[in-house]
Amino acid sequence: MSELPGAVRRVFPAGTAIAREHQARSAILIVTSGWAAFAKMLPNGSRLIVDFVLPHEIALIEFAGEMSETVTALSGVTAIELAGPVRSCFSRYPQPICEAVLAAEASRYSRLAEHLAGVSRRGTVERTAHLLLELACRTHRSATSYPNHYACPLTQTELADALGLSAVHVSRVLKTLREAGLATFRNGVVELHDHAGLIEMAGFDRSYLST
């Protein structure tokens, strides 16, 4: 992909704004390392993280400026950037690239639907377990198995912003999961102690990630 016409290698240090809300920006980012977050900033200064972008995933940034999100590098991010607009890729790039872009768009839609269901209808422990399992699947990149542990650079505040909770509440939920022998999150590592128990608690169906 780095040899495609117009491809540029980008490096975003942790905390860098890759794209800003209310500013026009159009790009296709193939993330090679690091984690980034798409977030909505609310008038009261709070933030809701609506989605994460992980290594080996494609981030589609198509912001007109009026209704958009802030995209922030949560850890150091390296990526290959293809210039937008996204719709132009179908006339500029080979079919496999276009198919990957379409798959990335479909995957993001599926994740957003699950995240909305989580913050609106799942209990706090269930939605936290659900997100930890989703991130496990996405880092492990297997269609059939779950890892026993995975690196997760999120702070409790960032996890709280993704779950629609306070950092204090997230701390209590993580304690509940730990004491139940289901999962532990400390020092940047998530450990999954009981896959079956977590799946049952969260009502987790990984099929939405298969898109």
TrEMBL record:
Q: Which SUPFAM superfamilies match?
A: cAMP-binding domain-like (SSF51206), Winged helix' DNA-binding domain (SSF46785)
Q: Does the keyword Transcription apply?
A: yes
Q: Which Pfam families would you find in this protein's record? A: HTH_Crp_2 (PF13545)
**Start and end residues of each HTH crp-type domain:** 122-196
InterPro entries found in the cross-reference section? cNMP-bd_dom, cNMP-bd_dom_sf, HTH_CRP, RmlC-like_jellyroll, WH-like_DNA-bd_sf, WH_DNA-bd_sf
> Which keywords belong to this entry?
DNA-binding, Transcription, Transcription regulation
Designated name of the protein: Crp/Fnr family transcriptional regulator
| Organism of provenance | Mesorhizobium australafricanum
Q: What is the lineage of its organism?
A: Bacteria, Pseudomonadati, Pseudomonadota, Alphaproteobacteria, Hyphomicrobiales
